Amino acid sequence: MTRVAVITGAGSGIGRALSLACARRGMAVVAADIEATALQQTLALLQALGAPCTGEVCDVGSEKQVQALADLSWSTYGRVDWLFNNAGVAVLGPVWEATTDDWSWVMGVNLMGVAHGVRAFVPRMLEAGAPAHVINTASAAGLATLAGSGVYCASKHAVVAMSECLQHDLRAVHAPIGVSVICPSLLPSRIDDSARNRPPQWAQAAATAPAYYERVRRGMEASTVTADDVAAMTLKAIERGGFYITPHDQTWTSVERRMRAIGEDHQHGRSGEDQHVER
Predict the structure, then answer these.
(1) Residue 65: phi, psi to the nearest 5?
(2) Which of 30, 214, 217, 228 is most exposed by smallest CB count within 10 Å?
């Protein structure tokens, strides 16, 4: 029986690469994206590969739309084997400049989009009782921090924590469902242009942080890791039951620096020392 993959944010970047990688593995693909034109482009590529596929315009920040995506997946194929909660957006700049609408939009997509996916799909996976896998896209910014990314980092740290807890919860009930979390650093994508899909209810903030966006663009241009690389690593991780997927070598350096700072502060606190630790 043909396995089925559901991918949100499938219109570009990692989401499109995951869609095509799954299709090349012989899977049927349910592709979802908030951008109808980009979604149709992905579907055309899937059809060119001869893959069974269907698409749905979906704002993952809407619980109702994600539930409709789950309904479509089961009504079309009768099963879902791999769920990729991949859609994401970003705003950059100092934390004190972030507006309430910035927080609502980013958290609504990056965090609640994953929560909606888990809520809509995992109970049906549990009911099916068959091996399955949930893959959440976080970021290297979910494992470490840097200036100008407070809102984004907060959302992605939350995705990592939710993924870890989801794994604990599934193991506690002995479910045959694996979990992985993708934590890429910068690579060529359209994350720097997320505002193109910002719904009108979340008012656009003034462009007060151009230097941060330029830093991101330079990082994307310099990356030797591509979306296709991330997709290939992700499928291998699913097959071996890997949890943390960190495509960029420098991610561990950032994580190690953060852990070392925590450990040093802990030791200084225990010894009564008052010494600043550079992060």
Answers:
(1) -70, -35
(2) 214
In 58-131, the DSSP E strands lie at: 82-85
Q: Determine the topology of domain 4-248 in CATH.
A: Rossmann fold (3.40.50)
Query: Distance between CA 70 and CA 83 in Å, rounded?
Result: 10
Catalytic, out of 152, 212, 213, 244: 152
Catalytic site includes residue 213: no
Residue 269 or residue 121, greater confidence: 121
Q: Tokens 């979306």 identify what position?
A: 227
Q: Could you tell me which residues come within 8 angstroms of residue 247 by beta carbon, excluding any fewer than 6 positions away? A: 182, 183, 184, 185, 187, 225, 229, 230, 233
Inter-residue contact 191 to 213 (CB < 8 Å): no
pTM: 0.92
| Integer Cα distance of 159 and 161 in angstroms | 5
- For the stretch 137-194, pLDDT in tens is 999 999 999 999 999 999 999 999 999 999 999 999 999 999 999 999 988 888 888 8
Report which of 169, 187, 189 is spatially closest to residue 179, judged by C-alpha positions: 169
Distances (CA, A) of 151 to 52, 90, 159, 181: 37, 8, 13, 19
What confidence tier does 268 reach under pLDDT thresholds 50, 70, 90? confident
Single-letter amino acid, residue 6 = V
